[in-house]
Write a structure and sequence with these properties.
There is one protein chain. This protein has helices at residues 20-23, 37-46; strands at 30-31, 51-55, 61-66. By secondary structure, it is an alpha+beta fold. β2 (51-55) and β3 (61-66) form a beta hairpin. Strands 1-2-3 form a three-stranded mixed sheet. The radius of gyration is 14 Å and the shape is elongated.
């Protein structure tokens, strides 16, 4: 599981001037491809998130699981 620090923003933003780096989620929760569905659902619930990134051992994104998938 990889976790990165999050910085939130509550001020109004201009779509024309705002860079995605200013609004992107920095807290990234990921699982490996061999993670059980039970463990993945547990992470979704524990972290109150709707998507999990699936990464290989090198940290390369190989897929995404959403709460709707399970």
């Amino acid at each position: 599981t990889k976790v990165k620090e999050s910085t939130g923003s509550a001020k109004p933003l201009s779509p024309d001037a705002t860079k995605v780096s200013e609004i992107m989620t920095r807290l990234v929760i990921s699982v490996g491809p061999d993670t059980t569905m039970k463990d993945a659902v547990g992470k979704l619930i524990d972290h109150r998130i709707h998507r999990l990134f699936v990464t290989d051992k090198a940290g390369v994104l190989v897929g995404v699981i959403s709460a709707l998938d399970v």
